[in-house]
Amino acid sequence: MSELDGKSQTVSEIVVSSAHGQSGKEGGSGGVIVLFFFVGLVASLIVGWVLFPKALYSQKKQPIDFNHTLHNGLVGNGCESCHFFREDGSYSGVPKLAQCIECHEEAQSSDPEEIKFVEQFVKKEIEVPWLVYARQPDCVFFSHAAHVKSANMDCATCHGPIGESEHMKLYQQNRITGYSRNIWGENIVGIKKNTWDRMKMDDCSECHQKQKVLLGSVQTQKEGCFVCHK
Amino acid sequence: MKIDRRSFLSLGIGVAAGTALSPLPWKLTDDLSIWTQNWPWTPVPEIGETSHVNSVCTLCPGGCGISVRKIEGRGVKIEGMTGHPVNQGGICALGLSGLQLLYGPTRIKTPLRRIGKRGEDRWEKISWEQAISEIAEKLDVLRTSGNSHTIAGIAGSRQGTVSQLFKRFLTAYGSPNFFHTPSCVDTYQLAFQYMNGVSGAPGFDLENADVILSFGSGLLDGWGSPVRMFKANTAWRKANAHVIQIEPRLSRTAAKADRWIAINPGTEAALALGVSHVLIKELLFDKEFVDSHTDGFESFVTSKGEMKKGFRQTVLENYSPETVARITGIDPSAIILLAREFAKAKAPLALCGKGQGIIPGSLAEAMAVHALNALVGSVNRKGGVFPMPETEIQVWHEVAMDSVAAVGINQTNLIGAPPNSPCGTNQIPAAILSGKGYPLNALFVLESNPLYTMADSKTVRDAFDKIPFLVSLSSFMDETARYADIVLPNHIYLERIEDAPAPTGFPKPVISLSKPVFKPQFNTKHAGDTLILLAKEMGGAVADAFPWDNFEACLEEVMGDKMKTLQEKGFWVDSDAAIPDWKAAFKTPSGKFQFSPAEATLGFVPVAIEGDSTFPLLLIPYETMRMAGGYIANPPFMTKTVEDTILKLNDSFIEINPKTAQSNQLSEGDFVVVQTSRGQARGRVHLEEGIMPGVIALPRGLGHTAYDGYIANKGINANQLIGPVQDPVSGLDAAWGIRAKLSKA
Ligand code: SF4
C-alpha cells in the first residue's frame, strides 16, 4: 500500500512540474513558434503558388508568328479551309507546308514573319516545326470527325477563340511531362471558366457525361475505356 | 526570444501547411504519374499523319478483316475491321501482334543459298535472277529425264489463289504431288461426301444453335474462325444457349462452358453413339427427318444381297449407356441426361475436331458426330451443320499439258494414293523412308513448316535428308526454311495482294482481299510472282500455263467481277448462296442422308495410338489462343501472355493430375523427362486438378529451334513426341495423343 501511495505522489509531482515549466517558457518562445509557423506557411505558399508554376513550364516561341484573324478573313471556309478533313474522314490537324505553298509560294506582303516563313521554310522545303498547344499524348485516340461532323461541335468549344487571335501565344511545356500547358490549363489549380480552358480526361468525361442521354455516348458504356485508349 | 528545436518544428509545420494549401503537391502528383508514362525508352510512334488501311489477316484460317493504323507510313496498330462479316470488329492476340512479324528480326531479307551443312544456318545471299535460274535449271534436268513426277509441293493452305497457282505449277510441270497442311476440315469433307453425298467444307450455323455439344473442339481456344467463335460465345450467353464441352482436360473452352464432362481421351465417338442410343431408345429423335430424308437407319439388304445392319440396330445393340460408360468413363445416368437435354433443344448442334482442329482426326468419330446431328435433324437447316455449297471461287483456264506433263501427272502420287483422295501429307515421311515408291528429287514448301508442325519431327527430318533439293518459300527463318537449300523469301501478309477465301467453319461463302498495306520491307517477292517467274524461266508449255505478267494480273483474271467488290469493300459475300433444304440437299445414290454409307462403317473404332504398357500415361497435346502452333510462331507479345505454369524461363510445364503426380512421386515444379516411343524431352510438371488422372498434357507452339531469339529454344515441341496414326479409311492423321512415361530428371 505504501508503495503505491509513494508512486502516485511522484506522478502528481511530475504533472505539476511540467505544467509549471510550460507556463514559464510561454513568454520566451511562444511568439517565435508562431512566427516560424507563419514564415514557413507564407514561404511555401509563395513557392507553391508563384514560383512553382513558373518553374514548371519552359517557354518556347512558335517558329513563325501566325495571324489567325488575318487568314480567317481571307479564306472561304473558316477553320476548315486549312484544318480540313481528309477524304477518308481523318483530320489533317496543323497544315503542312504543301497547303501553305498554295498561297505562299512567294511572300505576299512585307510582313517580316511572312518573309521569314517563305525564306526559311517554303524555299528550303522544310516543314515548319509548329508547337501544337492541344497535342494529346499517344495513348489518346481522338476523332475530330465524330465531334465536328457527327456532333456538330464548334472548334472553339475545345480550342477556344483561337481563330480570332492575331499572334501566337507562347508555347509552355511542362518540364516533367512534356505536355503543353493547355492540357492542364492556364490555371495552376485547374479551375476553368470556359469549356476550352482545360483538355484533360476529366474534361472529356464532363461533357460526355452531360451529353450521355443526348448522344448515347459510347465512352460511358461497357468497354468505354477502349474507345479512346486503344 | 529563444530559437530552439521547437521553432524549427513549427517552421516545418508551417511549410507543410502552406504546401498543402498550394497547388504544388497535387499538380506534382499528377505530373509525376504522367511522367511515368513517358519514359524515353517507352516506344511511342512518331508524331505525324495517321491513316488506316483495311485488309485481311491470314495468320490463321480465321479470315478476319483488319484495319491497320499507320502513322507517317509506319504501322502502329492492327485492329479488327468494323463491319467485316466474320469478326465484326474483333481481333485475337495473334492478329494484334502482326506488326511484330512485319518488323521483327525473324524475316528473311533476301534470297539465300545454303553454304553450310543442312540446318547449319550458313548462307550466301543470291539475287532473285540467280535463284530462279538455278531452280529452273534443276527442274529442267528432272523434267527432260522423265522425272517430272518426282518433285512435290507442300502448301500451308489448300485454298486461295496462291495455293492454286502452286498446284497449277506442279500440274503444268507434270507432278501429281501437291499437298497441303490438312485439318479436321478434310475429315469433315469426307464424312459429308459419304453421308450427304456432297463434298464441301463444313459450315456451322453456330449463332443460331441453342445447345452446343462440343466433342473436344476448342471453341474458345482457336477452333474454326477464332474471333467469330468469341462473338458466337457472346451471342450464346445473351440467348441463354448451353455449351457442353466433352474433353479430358479443363481447357479454357471447358472452363467457360455451361457444363464440362471429362471423358477418356479418344473415346468421343463412343459417347456420340451412346447419346444416339438414348435418342433412339426413348424416341427423342427427329422422326420426320429420319423417316423422310434418310437412308440406312433401318437394316437393309445390300446390292450384293447381304443383310446389313442399319444405324438403329447398330447403336441399340452396341452402344447402351452402360457399355459407353465403360469406354468413356462417363456415368450412364449422365449420358442419358445429356441425350435428353440435346433432344429437348430447339436447335441442337454437335461438333468435333479436337482443339483447333489441326489434326484431321478419326473419320469414324466425325461420322458418329454427324449422325448424331442427323438424328435431331440438325443438318442443312438453321442452327445446323452443312457442307458449304462449292461455289466457283476462282475461275481458271485449263492447263494445256505437254506430253511430259500428261505422263507425269498420271503417275500415282508419292504416298501411292489415287488422285482426289484426301491429302495424306502425314504419310509423306514414311513413304520417303520406306523407299517403296519412287524417290523424291525436289520438294517445295510454301508457307508451311513441316519440320516443326508434323508429328514426329525427327522422322520428318530423316525423310527430308533423303530429298536432294529442298526449296522454301517462307517469310521467316522457320525450321524448314533453315533446312532448305534455297530460300525464296515471300512477302508477309501485310505486304501482298491475295485472296483469303472461306474462313474455317463459317456458314457463308466469304472471300476477303489482303492488300499490300506496307511496301515490302526487304528484298522479298510475292510467292505468286515467284511461281510465275519460275514458270516463265522454264519456258514451253509450263510458261504457257502462266500467261500473266504478275500475280495481281492472275488474281484479277481468276476472281473476275468479284475483284471490283473486293477492291471496294475488302470482302465479298455470296449473298445468293442458300443452304439447300432437305429435299434438295443430299446427292447420295438414294438422294437421302445416308446413315450407313458403303465406304465406311459407323461405329467406335479406337485410334491405335502408339506405345505399349511400358508407357503408363497418355500424353495429349493441346492448343491455346495464347500460342501460335502452326507455320506462324509466337510473336513476343503473345509469349508474354503465356502463364508461368505453362512456360517459365525456357522450361515447359507438363500438366498432370495431383493424384497421378503423387503416385509417380512428383510434386509441383519437379524436373522430369517425358518419354514416348518417338522421343523424349525435359521439362517440369505442373499439378492441375483439371486434367484426368493418368493423362498428361503439353501445349503446341513451343520448342522451336528456329525463328528468333524470342521464341527459339523455349520449352518442348509436343509434335516431336508424337507419331502420326493413319485413319484406316481416310488415311489422314488421327493421332490425338500417344502413350508416355515420366521420370524424374
Ligand atoms: S483469328 Fe486468325 S485471322 Fe483472325 S485475327 Fe486472329 S490470327 Fe488473324
What's a quick, concise take on this entry?
The complex is a heterodimer of chains A (230) and B (745). Chain A has 230 residues and is mainly α.
Distance between the termini of chain B: 80 Å
Radius of gyration of chain A: 30 Å
Shape of chain A: globular
CATH class of the largest domain in chain B: Alpha Beta
Shape annotation of chain B: globular
Q: Percentage of helical residues of chain A?
A: 40-55%
Number of strands of chain A: 2
Note the main sheet of chain B: 7 strands, mixed
What is the succession of H and E elements of chain A?
A: HEHHHHHEHHHH
How many alpha or pi helices of chain B? Answer: 27
Instruction: Tell me what the CATH architecture of the largest domain in chain B is.
Output: 3-Layer(aba) Sandwich
Walk me through the structure:
The complex is a heterodimer of chains A (230) and B (745). With 230 residues, chain A is mainly α. Among the domains of chain A are: 2-58; 133-228, no CATH class. Helix content of chain A is 50%, strand content 3%. Chain A has ten helices and two strands. Chain A has helices at residues 2-56, 68-74, 97-104, 112-122, 144-150, 155-159, 181-184, 201-210, 212-215, 225-228, and strands at residues 57-60, 171-174. A two-stranded antiparallel sheet of chain A has the order 1-2. In chain A, helix 3 crosses helix 4 (112-122). The longest helix of chain A is centred in the N-terminal third of the chain and has 55 residues, at 2-56. Chain A is globular and about 75 Å long. Chain B has 745 residues and is of the alpha/beta class. Chain B has four domains: 1-38, no CATH class; 112-176 and 392-450 and 459-573, Rossmann fold (3-Layer(aba) Sandwich), CATH 3.40.50.740; 206-383 and 579-594, 3-Layer(aba) Sandwich (Dimethylsulfoxide Reductase, domain 2), CATH 3.40.228.10; 617-744, Beta Barrel (Barwin-like endoglucanases), CATH 2.40.40. Helices cover 33% and strands 17% of the residues of chain B. Chain B has 27 helices and 30 strands. In chain B, helix 9 (252-256) links the parallel strand 10 (242-246) and strand 11 (259-261). In chain B, helix 7 packs across helix 15 (363-375), helix 10 (268-281) runs antiparallel to helix 13 (321-328) and helix 13 (321-328) crosses helix 14 (332-344). The radius of gyration of chain B is 28 Å and the shape is globular. Classes of the chains: A mainly alpha (230), B alpha/beta (745). Chains A and B meet through helix 1 of A and helix 1, helix 2 and strand 1 of B. The complex binds iron/sulfur cluster. Iron/sulfur cluster is lined by residues 57, 59-60, 62-64, 87, 91-92, 94-95, 226-227 of chain B. Residues 57, 59-60, 62-64, 87, 91-92, 94-95, 226-227 of chain B line the site of iron/sulfur cluster.
